[in-house]
Specification:
It contains seven helices and ten strands. The strands form three sheets. Strands 3-4-5-8-7 form a five-stranded mixed β-barrel. It has a two-stranded antiparallel ribbon with strand order 1-2. Strands 6-10 form a two-stranded antiparallel ribbon. α4 packs parallel to α5. The longest helix has 30 residues.
Length: about 260
């Protein structure tokens, strides 16, 4: 019995020493600042608990892949609009008959072009695409304008409400607009079947109502009052690929560039 009691007491002492040793080791670990941080877990709302969420980088590909959409608040005429914020946007690569220029009055098919533009964009959200230039000399944004996947610039030319009128260096879609115009001319759509495009040059190549679409007589830069008028006529006659009236003397795609 004495031996059994002595053996039990030794085991009790050993166990006490073991507990003391484990406590000492734990105290040393705590003094070194080491700890185990539990992994963050989502709460039911989907937010991360136990860790700070990383901020979204607005310049990341995922963020920039969604183009900004802007609402059209006003249609000025066939090729000019205003968007939310008050900015004015001039469509690149096309020209429609005037309706608001006091120097020219309302030109042939101008009201129709303006109405078509309203039908396509007014009150809608549009996406803007820049070419090279930011603005024109009047401070208007120069842009290709889209409603969904529909490019409004091309649509107006293709349906005969505008002429292709490209001004370097903003010529990204020049060939597309030229092809659209050829189709409209061939099928006498819009202004091509309704306006005399060869009347007085001061009307920017949009004349009085007529079924004629032919050009009579040779033209030179003196027949135009502005570069814009000359360029519109130049494009309508096949420029810059073809220049039967020799309006582009230096072959740079710009007709009568000395005009204002």
């Amino acid at each position: 019995m004495r031996m059994l009691f002595g053996s039990k007491r030794r085991w009790i002492v050993i166990l006490l020493l073991a507990f003391l040793l484990l406590g000492f080791i734990g105290a040393i670990g705590g003094s070194n600042g080491s700890s185990i941080t539990p992994s963050p877990s989502p709460n039911p709302s989907g937010e991360v608990v136990g860790a700070q969420a990383s901020p979204i980088n607005s310049s990341s590909p995922a963020a920039s892949s969604n183009p900004q959409l802007l609402k059209v608040t006003k249609v000025v005429d066939g090729d000019t609009i205003q968007i939310e914020g008050g900015k004015t946007v001039r469509y690149i690569g096309i020209d429609t008959p005037e309706t608001v220029d006091p120097r020219r009055g309302v030109q042939c098919f101008g009201k129709e072009a303006s109405s078509k533009n309203k039908e396509l964009v007014l009150g809608k959200e549009v996406r803007l695409e820049k070419d090279v230039s930011e603005t024109d000399r009047f401070g208007r944004l120069l842009r290709y304008v889209y409603v969904g996947e529909l490019m409004i610039n091309e649509t107006l030319v293709k349906e005969g409400f505008a002429q292709a009128s490209s001004y370097p260096p903003d010529v990204k879609y020049q060939e597309k607009f030229r092809a659209a115009q050829e189709d409209a001319q061939k099928n006498k759509k819009g202004l091509w079947g309704s306006c005399n495009l060869t009347s007085s040059a001061t009307t920017n190549n949009y004349g009085t109502p007529s079924n004629s679409g032919t050009v009579s007589g040779d033209k030179d830069c003196g027949d135009f009052s502005t570069h814009g008028e000359a360029q519109a006529f130049f494009i309508s006659q096949g420029g810059p690929t073809s220049d039967p009236h020799k309006l582009d003397q230096d072959k740079d795609g710009i007709a009568c560039e000395t005009l204002p």
